[in-house]
Amino acid sequence: PAMTALSAIPAPAEAPAKPSLLGLTRAQLADQLRALDLPEREIRMRVNQLWNWIYFHGVRDFDAMLNVSKVLRARLADRFTLARPEVVSEQVSTDGTRKWLIRMPRVDAQDKGAEIECVYIPEADRGTLCVSSQVGCTLTCTFCHTGTQKLVRNLTTPEVVAQLVVAREKLGDFPGLTPPVDGIVPTGEGVRAISNVVFMGMGEPLYNLDNVCDALAIMSDGDGLSLSKRRITVSTSGVVPQIGPLGERSGAMLAISLHAVRDDLRDRLVPLNKKYDIAELLQACRDYPGASNARRITFEYVMLKGVNDTDADARELVRLLKGIPAKINLIPFNPWPGAPYECSDWGRIEKFSDIVFNAGYASPVRTPRGRDILAACGQLKSETEKLRARARLAAE
Ligand code: SAH
Ligand code: SF4
């Protein structure tokens, strides 16, 4: 929800004349090579070579692919590019949080264009990239700004993957690149600038499951981008029938946007609850493939003043999660103009978190990061839209 959808204004980048190979799966790369009439016996080897250059080395130019013959490099360059989506702007917070506005080229003539924001949060022992799965969202959670805008479209697999590639590039996190001078990056031994990815940007990932699963496979491929699956977390508002398939197909970590402990309240906060209630949701969590004490499910709980933040709510939360290998993440509500809620007072959040802590859940409050660049959930859309509206007026 921390993300911005900026549809249609200004004119989106035109669909490129030559397609980019960035973001394709191995099978898709193989198909592209077959279209070049490469002999079938060569395809596998060539795919492996391309894969390593594109995803491990992050090269932008076919000429850098030294173990590929000059002739084939020229043929590839004739038909394809390694183009990335354009980074329209970059903002850096005093705490090291970075926010990029990324513009995707049109996928077809009807496409109004997609712009999304991607946020990087460095910490001592990890660097987390927050990515989007859709432009906008079809769901209408009442505390979420993304929910107030209508879905523009699902992101494609390459568009999901490109968020990681572009961010690594910006952070100098490919061989041969240098980190930015104003960068704050994690310092742990062997920790890369981006060690974790969370699908907590715009959109409901489980409504775009095929593309998200393909993107997860590319991101976690050990010969390429090499993220650990245990460090990729997919957050859902509770699309129960897709939770099992997500686990089976991707092996990703699961986060649930719970936010309420009673159905009547959750119906209001997360309207999808009317379709899949709390009991069904928690059962899907108990059944989640691979969940264990070493691979806990994260339960997100946004703190809304006078709505879901009493001691009784906290005790009920602990009771509900009994028997599920769980982590609890208390999120201070990020207000946006016209939002029908306020963030709980700090003292209230502390009381709530004490109850949760005493029940055995460690350090559950998510500290707001990047406040100075409006990188927090729910704020970005409004600010960027204000700027957009101003630009539009100026252009009229
Ligand atoms: N659609 C998915 C993933 C994106 S939302 C989902 O709902 O889980 C990522 C997290 O941010 C969710 O827990 C969501 O409830 C929360 N969120 C949305 N708007 C927020 C706001 N204004 N303040 C704080 N958290 C918010
Ligand atoms: Fe926002 Fe997630 Fe709800 Fe969509 S599902 S409206 S992104 S909180």
Can you walk me through this structure?
With 396 residues, the protein is an alpha/beta fold. Helix content is 32%, strand content 15%. It has helices spanning 26-35, 40-56, 70-79, 157-170, 209-219, 240-250, 263-269, 278-286, 311-320, 346-358, 380-395; strands at residues 86-92, 98-104, 114-122, 127-130, 134-135, 153-154, 196-199, 232-236, 253-257, 297-303, 326-332. The strands form 2 sheets. Strands 1-2-3-4-7-8-9-10-11 form a 9-stranded mixed sheet, covered by helices on one side. A two-stranded antiparallel ribbon has the order 5-6. Mean pLDDT is 88; it is low at 2-10 and 377-396. Bound molecules: S-adenosyl-L-homocysteine and iron/sulfur cluster. Iron/sulfur cluster (SF4) is lined by residues 1, 137, 139-141, 144, 146-147, 203-204, 237, 257.
Primary descriptors:
single chain, 396 residues, alpha/beta, two-stranded antiparallel sheet, 11 helices, 11 strands, 32% helix, 15% strand, disordered N terminus, binds S-adenosyl-L-homocysteine, binds iron/sulfur cluster
The percentage helix is 25-40%
Strand content: 5-15%
What structural class do helix, strand and pairing data support?
alpha/beta
Topology pattern, helix = H, strand = E: HHHEEEEEEHEHEHEHHEHEHH
Radius of gyration using CA atoms only: 22 Å
Give the biggest sheet: 9 strands, mixed
pLDDT averaged over residues: 88
Low-confidence stretches: 2-10, 377-396
**Distinct compounds present:** S-adenosyl-L-homocysteine, iron/sulfur cluster
Strands of the largest sheet, in order across it?
A: 1-2-3-4-7-8-9-10-11
Q: Kindly, what is the distance between the CA atoms of the first and last residues, rounded to a whole number of angstroms?
A: 30 Å
Form type? elongated
How many H/I helices? 11
Strand element count: 11
